[in-house]
Write a structure and sequence with these properties.
This protein is α+β, with helices and mostly antiparallel strands. It is built from 15 helices and 19 strands. It has a six-stranded mixed beta sheet. The longest helix is centred in the middle third of the chain and has 15 residues, at 226-240.
Length: 443
């Protein structure tokens, strides 16, 4: 069981397919996943605890016996966790147990103090069967948690079977957040599932299209990939729905990138080789040892550790998500960023290099190209879920590229571009003295 999102609202965090409680102990709190904790620690009422124990053992006769003794099928435990919350969070629980709880009166509409419903607890898992049972027994397919809808969450985690179930039971593609903003279009575009976006547009998605279209215009999709074709189809559908192109841009900072479209950067080192190919907009491809992974980055809207570039966070999803994507040597996702970093002087730049070149494979040139990467191959039940983490940085000094950096290796990095290697890299951006000074001190 892997930690998916840590949203510590009060004393609960979310795991893939499970809830985890922070139980008071002498030293503070101990985080324990439901399913590996005694029900008595969560349900103070002895009858409720006995019922939950029977649920955990998937003992139908025991469940009936506890209910006959007076246990409440909808009893509240710590943080208003109900027996149904507990049941759907138990990894591998049989569907017939959940169905039996509904026959005995379990209420799918009860919300924990964390703000989650039983449907919300399973929508990011591979248990479409449980989600359908919950919806079939009266759960609202449009229940929200914070600013998100169930359909938006299933889309974010790319749970296609759950998406099918939600749409079958009436999930609204035009649901809006509490602040009145469209949810689904941006969520779908953010994860690069333009095939799903076309589906939602065909189903009547009409809200939030302008902001979504702006993201599609700026997004990087590798030329010729299936998602590139879906992206073009989504843009055409948005135009039919009244979106004007090009979409007026929102005043804001322009990303400070390193590579120009069409550039290829090849790195050779004693620890391994890697190449970065720049496609249209923010699309990148990373090549190594016969492997190739594509990445669709997003532009930063504010500086992050001094950088105003682009990134791909490489989020973790479930096993069935990774089965849809190519993998190589245990790696199937990219966690990458590309940006410029402007320093006030050479000393500050070299100190930064010294602090950022020790753990990953790292090379840099005299004129400021800095590449650092590491592979983290992982397997989950025979499916690759590992990541390539990489940072490509153009080091600048007072708006100019340096000419000499200690420890550099010009031979380690080769640039290729259709118009010549001199056209492969962007010029150093003009930044304020305040930004440079912060970069020089916040290392």
């Amino acid at each position: 069981m892997k930690l998916e999102r840590r949203c510590f609202l009060s004393r609960v965090a979310v795991l893939v397919g499970a809830l985890v409680l922070a139980i008071p102990v002498a030293q503070g709190f101990e985080e324990i996943a439901i399913g590996s904790i005694s029900p008595q620690k969560v349900f103070p009422d002895p009858q409720a605890a006995a019922l939950v124990d029977a649920i955990g053992r998937e003992d139908i006769a025991g469940i009936d016996a506890r209910l006959a003794e007076g246990a409440d099928i909808n009893a509240f435990g710590v943080m208003k966790i109900t027996p149904l919350h507990w049941a759907v969070a138990k990894e591998g629980i049989k569907a017939n147990v959940i169905e039996h709880l509904f026959r005995k009166g379990a209420n799918p509409a009860l919300i924990s103090e964390f703000g989650t419903s039983p449907a919300w607890d399973v929508v990011n898992t591979n248990r479409a069967d449980l989600l359908e049972i919950i919806l079939k027994n009266g759960a609202d397919p449009n229940v929200r948690y914070g600013q998100d809808s169930l359909l938006a969450k299933a889309t974010y985690y790319q749970r296609d079977e759950n998406i099918n179930v939600l749409l079958k039971y009436g999930a609204d593609v035009n649901a809006v957040s509490k602040s009145g903003q469209g949810i689904l279009c941006l969520e779908t575009a953010t994860v690069g599932r333009f095939d799903l976006l076309v589906r939602y547009l065909d189903l009547g998605l009409n809200v939030g299209l302008v902001n979504c279209a702006r993201l599609l215009e700026d997004s990087g999709v590798w030329d010729g990939s299936p998602q590139d074709q879906w992206r073009e189809q989504a843009l055409a559908l948005m135009k039919e729905k009244g979106v004007t192109f090009p979409v007026p841009s929102i005043p804001g900072p322009k990303p400070e990138l390193v590579l120009k479209p069409g550039a290829r950067l090849e790195v050779t080192s004693s620890k391994g080789n890697i190449a970065i190919v720049a496609g249209k907009r923010l699309a990148r491809q990373y090549q190594w040892d016969g492997c190739a992974l594509e990445s669709n980055m997003h532009a930063r809207t504010s500086r992050w550790y001094g950088k105003l570039g682009a990134y791909d966070g490489g989020g973790r999803y479930g096993k069935d998500h990774y089965l849809k994507f190519p993998s190589c040597k245990g790696v199937t996702r990219t966690s990458v960023q590309e940006a410029q970093l402007n320093f006030p002087d050479l000393e500050a730049a070299e100190k930064w290099i010294g602090q950022n070149s020790k753990s990953w494979t790292t090379v840099w040139t005299n004129d400021g190209l800095f590449v650092s990467w590491v592979f983290s191959p992982m397997q989950s039940d025979g499916v690759a879920t590992g990541a390539l983490s990489l940072e490509l940085t153009l080091l600048c000094i007072n708006g100019q590229r340096p000419t000499k950096l200690a420890g550099s290796s010009d031979q380690a990095i080769k640039l290729v571009h259709p118009n010549g290697p001199g056209q492969a890299v962007h010029e150093c951006a003009v930044v304020s003295n305040d930004v440079m000074q912060k970069n020089g001190t916040n290392r």
